[in-house]
Specification:
The chain is of the alpha/beta class. The protein is built from 6 helices and 15 strands. It is globular and about 50 Å long. The structure holds flavin-adenine dinucleotide and FE2/S2 (inorganic) cluster.
Amino acid sequence: MPNKNPYRPIKTEVLDVLTETPIIKTLKLKPAEQITFKTGQFIELTIPGAGEAPFTPSSRPSVTDMMEVTVMKVGKVTEKIHRVKKGETVGLRGPFGNGYPVDDFKDKEVLVVGGGCGFAPVRSLMYELFDRIGDFKKLLFRGGCKSPTEFLYKNETAEWVKRKDLDAVLTVDTDDGDKTWEGRVGLVTSILDGINFDFNTGIAIVCGPPVMMKFTTAKLLDLGFRDPNIYLSIEKNMSCGIGKCGHCRMGEYYVCKDGPVFTYDSIKNYPDIWE
Ligand SMILES: Cc1cc2nc3c(=O)[nH]c(=O)nc-3n(C[C@H](O)[C@H](O)[C@H](O)COP(=O)(O)OP(=O)(O)OC[C@H]3O[C@@H](n4cnc5c(N)ncnc54)[C@H](O)[C@@H]3O)c2cc1C
Ligand code: FES
């Protein structure tokens, strides 16, 4: 349920903090008021005295008594978030944005491609797709991270590979000599070769760092995916989150309000989509 005053952060208890990789942590949060979100929407997390930043919940949308956000340490606010301890209080605004139009994927073949910290929104999306697996003709997942040490949700995604109702392949750019790594080695685009898929009507959802989304989209187009069937999650610098301040403007769109999920078709003519 959306917060009535979108500028007011809701007091939120930090139930737990999990270290995922050397630079990524997941916070389990319990807002004082129930917040439900659609997969792919985002929230603004406020750290008292440090500011706020947008994050896409990484947890199952149908779980409404707590929410998880997975945060990569890149700068001032995320550095402070990484210092937050279990039991402390933070603020949370949202949810904002459109989220993934999962109903539109019904009766279609669906391919999800995740890279690096893009696994956070992708995890929430995969939970939603697993919950509705009978709705789709076929579900494929292709995920890539830099190395086994930096592989987000390593144990969980290893379980996905074993599922009979999902065709999942994982890869790392380099295995750093880690003999326990059971996935592939190579860029995420390399594990898109040879997929058995209905490229004409199938849906592809891509989430990851801009450079990964750029090359993955080019690869999907080469394979025969159609522009309106490729969904991208766009990250722009944000402030208000509700289409008022103009910080996130991209052409005719406000990414916070009209996105962050866009079809490639709707944004491909803008020069700055991969920045
Ligand atoms: C809709 C949306 C969802 C996001 N979801 C997640 C998520 O689930 N997990 C996660 O770790 N990160 C996510 N991000 C990115 C996250 O918001 C930024 O990493 C964070 O705002 C950086 O804040 P900072 O003060 O630590 O870094 P800063 O000190 O402000 O900057 C450090 C670096 O991060 C870049 N940056 C700063 N703000 C943003 C921003 N709003 N978006 C993109 N890059 C930014 C800067 O260009 C700079 O390179 C999301 C961003 C958006 C817009
Ligand atoms: S963040 Fe203010 S208009 Fe989008």
